[in-house]
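Sample pair:
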Amino acid sequence: MTNNDVPQGGFAEAGADLELVGISKRFPGFTAIEELDLTIPAGSFFALLGPSGCGKTTTLRLIAGLEEPTTGRIMIGGRDVTSTRAFQRPVNTVFQSYALFPHMSIIENVSFGLKRRGMKNAAPLAHEALRLVELDHVANRKPAQLSGGQQQRVALARAVVNRPALLLLDEPLGALDLKLRRQMQIELKDIQSEVGLTFLHVTHDQEEAMTMADTVAVMNKGRIEQMGNPQELYELPHTVFVANFLGQSNLFTGKVTSSGSDSIVVDVDGTKFEVPTDRAQRHRGLITVGVRPEKVTLHDSAPKQTAGRNVIGPGRVTDVSFSGVSTQYEITLPGHGALTVFSQNTSITSIHRDGDEVWLSWDVDHAFGLADDVETDPASRFPSDTDTSMIATQSRAKLKAELGKD
């Protein structure tokens, strides 16, 4: 369904699927996207998650038609739109800045696109969209009379009213305060479920992605490191980057000393750690294994060695951070550095203090083994770019520097 196929009443039953085939984007001097292949099913809520500079916003701009790919194809609903101009694509975008017309009323803002396309029932459809975001009662107000959260919902209504096959969300909640942002996360998910459109949400906020999305793709240096449902990515990361970016992880590097059908044993500076075979990406040689901080238990004395339990210690508590529902501890262990432990605050008397000697343990089933090492340098992934534009830019900068010296 395209923007010109908007039904005369009600919202579209579902969006269209999105497929990126061999997409790359190179700018003079650097590569933003490297051979990206991605398929997003119709009607799903998909999140593209990653830090600044990973290529997620460039990917969104390519899909929207605001940039042209260096190589590859963009397919929406099975139709190749790679060469299609932005306004001709069945896509709408919701930005962090809202981009509402300040001189227009809310209803005028929402119906603007419909009127531009000559829709005779623009007003009823605009009211329907405002009812969807529970703002029809402020239809005659101006944007300046609304809160930031209300303005963001108006921007969403303005995008949804066009019945796009694909709705792009570019850090849409970044300007909101914490409480409102969490409320909007739930509302966005509810709206997506109700209208059935395909949502592609670009964000650097891990909690936001995991709260709303059916599927999350973690992006790093122009490529997708890992993709799956939020629980899968968090509980079983495949790379060091995913383990550290999606939450926190305690990581250890050691040599595999035994490998069986059920588990492998890794020697980390004399301490043996067991990891389930099906939770390890590599089963021999030097590997990196880890465990999430909330899976670790603190002990006042050395716990008894039991099957199915990893034990390490003793160590010293070097930092305590109380956050209400939990307490974060930093534990320094000889030969292992600093480890992080999250402990739920079930009793105020159970809080450990700086300098306390403690032992740590965790269930073997909570451990994971990664496909790469902590020392991996992702910055070396791309070769240096020396195309004509870059050479000219470097030469001009060098000449200016020489003239400045004189």
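Residues 240 and 374 are 6 Å apart (CA to CA).
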